[in-house]
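Final report, Chapter 2: Outcomes

The project's central promise was a pipeline that accepts a single protein chain and returns its three-dimensional structure in a standardized token representation, suitable for archiving and comparison. That pipeline is now operational. To close this chapter, we reproduce one record exactly as it appears in the project archive, with the input sequence first and the structure output second.
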Amino acid sequence: RPEETRHVSNDYRVGWTMAALAGAGVMLLTVGCEDKKPNLAPVASALASSAPPSGASVKKFSIDSTSKTSIEMEAPKEKIRATASGAAGTLDVDLTNITSSRGEVKVDLATLTTSTFDDEGQNASQTTHARTWLEVGDGESGKIDEETKKTHRWAVYAIRSIENASATDITKLAPSKDGADDVRTVTLTTKGELLVHGHKVGRDADVEVAFRYDPGAAADMPKAVTIKTKKPFRVVLAEHDVKPRDGFGKIAKSSFHLLGTKVADNADIVLDLSAKPQS
């Protein structure tokens, strides 16, 4: 890493790396030299709805609010760890043709909490810095206006298509056992759009989807769905205009020199979602 990285203050280094957790994480960071900065992604206040193809027969599932997004990031002096523990969204699942399924996953960035250190005070300070940089929480020295926090609160992923499914008709899969439950599992790649901090980018995710049933239940009557990423995926901080900010959310120009240093490279994002049928 560049020599200057070793001289960046701990406060700014922590703030910079954890700001990457957009998304949900979240999501969020690949920062290179000044002449290699990624382009800013297109501006968007929301994503278009993602409807199933005409003729698809879908069951609607609501994502459990306690679903989690986690991150691990290799910083120069420690491994950053954090989670976002709030989620929302809806899945339209076609059990007989999984590739026709669509949906929207939302991660609550206001719940982003770090667990990097053994010291609770350090984690609390790091959490505050990360939320301030993302403009979803008040800083240690001031308050961000409520409308701004509301605007940036959710990281949203809209599923536009599905590819590489290991099976297309879930109802024809032989179930396995997990405790008392019958489970039918498929792997696939979701292709979609990610909205973080008012900017959207295209993103793919390789996931494992498990459909859980009461013992002996009909194959078209799952009681729950779990979705887990098979491998972490990454998002670029600079594409989403996440920059050093003070406690009031104002750009901290004195910290701009950090944008040209390799304070950290990649944030590895892992999704662990659960959903239940809508009544």
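Archive annotation: The longest strand covers residues 181-196.
This record, like all others produced under the grant, will remain available to the consortium after the project formally closes.
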